[in-house]
Amino acid sequence: MNRRTFFGVLALFGALLLTGCGGGGGGTSAKDPLVMFVHASPDAGAVDISLNDRKELTSVNYPTNSTWRSIPFISEANGGYDVSVSPAGTTTDVARIATTFNRDTSTVAVVDGLVTPDPSDPQKSLDITTFTVNRIRPNGNKARLIIFHGFQRAAGLSTPAVLFRNPGENPLFTTGNVNPGTQTTLDIDSGTFTWNVRRADGEAIYVSATHTAAPGSVLLVLISGVENDPTNPAAIRFIDLQATD
Prior knowledge:
The protein has one helix at about 5-20, and strands at about 35-40, 45-50, 55-60, 70, 80-85, 95-100, 105-110, 125-130, 140-150, 160-165, 185-190, 190-200, 205-215, 220-225, 235-240. The chain is mainly beta. It is globular, with a radius of gyration of 22 Å.
């Protein structure tokens, strides 16, 4: 065997060895998915949240969130996950979705909408919304806001898209239109700012809040509650997503 053939065989053997061990693509270093659960349904009461019909969290109250939880990766080909929500202490689903949580990702799963919407508002029904988030620390003096629109207008009134922005006609920072049950990302300068949730097609301001965002932070901004509901009023919550390097 000449020198070229010998090294060719050696390279082939090494490739086969890596393939057999899950190499060649970082398979052995891939991490199980991380999931954070957020209860944003104002009228759901305490709920249990299950993965593949196994209770993951019990008696979760509104408006609260879990810490990041590592769960075993299950591919789509192997069925992925069913995420379901039931009133605390029961097994009766009020919402269920099928999804796949990929390796090396951080996913927020939000329980949003209403258990008992007005019959004229079926679009407000309880749902589970999942989305991956970029938790890599922003550079320099920046902070990252991930804004989720879980707010509901009063019964009989359609919930519009909103803007999340600073006050005034010339805001320093503003999102584009954020539709109900969706999210968007806004990178800002760190510091203390006042924020309005404003109707995208009008002047109405549903709720305001002031918050200090630290340099390099990544925050989930949860807009929730119901218009003119004294029990569950419109609110803005800032949830630290724990930025990574």
